[in-house]
Each structure stands twice: as structure tokens, then as C-alpha cells.
Amino acid sequence: MGSLIYFNSASLDGYIAGPDGRWDWATPDAEVHSFVNELVAPARVHLYGRKVYEVMKVWDDLALDDLPAAEREFALQWRDIDKIVYSSSLGAVTTRRTELRPIFDPVEVREFVDASPAPVAIGGGRLASAAARAGVLDEVHVVVAPAVVGGGTRFLDEGLRLDLELFDQRRFANGFVYLGYRVV
């Protein structure tokens, strides 16, 4: 039986992008990027909303020779996973191994995750919040960046209530901190 895991980076005040839409303050160094690669590698399927997909699709055709080792490893991982994009406004997807669905159906997702031999990753605060509200989110993983950005796109929706149990943590030399939680 698989599990539905949400991973993202966030500022100390809980944002994945600042008020200007930028997230350069959360850019991982090689140590953090390698850790994230290892963390998400078991997931063979990733679920995305439109905005996250539009950010992530750059990995599909970046020139690998131009990338540092950790980024090259992530690009190869991303190209080798199946992706499901939930969007009613996106007309088509342009990346390999990607399927477009008009709506997020939590019952279908729970059945799919339960039948999966590996974890399924979900990307983006809004989609993860929808999964949490529907009771299908199993784990929350966050790399907290040493920054306070004062507003923007939230890690999880305001008003969402989740009880969590810490099962993993790690501190990095650059001041970033990883926290892994199970939803209880």
C-alpha cells in the first residue's frame, strides 16, 4: 500500500513563494538538493496542479550537460516518473509521461495510492490542501528555508487543520531544516 506525500520548500513564515511570486530564497544548495532527490526518488507518480506543473516542466528538456550533479540527477528522475496534472484551464500537457485531468477526485486518488507499491507525491500547496481536507494526505515533508517573506503563496491553505506526528528531521549546513511528518 502506498502513501500520498506532500513535499515542498517553505519560508519560516509558511510560504512557498513570496508576495512577488518569487522563490529564489528557497533555492537549494547541492547538499539540500541531493537530500531532496533521495527523499522523492521512491515516488514513481507525481500529482500537480497547473501552476506547479508549469514551474516543473522545465526539467523535461533542460540540457543535462549544463546542470550541476544534483540538478542533473533530479532532471533524470523527473523525466522518468509519471505525472498527473489537475487543471480545468490547461488545454494540453507538453511533457513526456504526463496525463491531464480536469478535476482532482480524492476518492480516485485514494484508490490509486492504496494500489500503488510506492509512495505517490503531490506538489503544490493548494492541491495538497485539497487532499488534506479530503483526508487522503498521509505525509507532509518540508524543507524550511532560513527566510521570512511576509506573504505570498502558502505552504498549505490558511484555515486548514492537520494533526501531525514528527518522524524525521535534519539540519543542513546552509541553515535549511528538513521536517517529515505523518498525518494522524
UniProtKB/TrEMBL annotation:
Give residue ranges for domain Bacterial bifunctional deaminase-reductase C-terminal.
Answer: 4-177
- Alphabetized InterPro entries for the sequence: DHFR-like_dom_sf (IPR024072), RibDG_C (IPR002734), Riboflavin_Biosynth_HTPR (IPR050765)
Q: Which Pfam families match?
A: RibD_C (PF01872)
Annotated PANTHER family: 2,5-DIAMINO-6-RIBOSYLAMINO-4(3H)-PYRIMIDINONE 5'-PHOSPHATE REDUCTASE, DIHYDROFOLATE REDUCTASE FAMILY PROTEIN (AFU_ORTHOLOGUE AFUA_8G06820)
Supply the name of the protein: Dihydrofolate reductase family protein
Q: From which organism does this entry originate?
A: Microbacterium jejuense
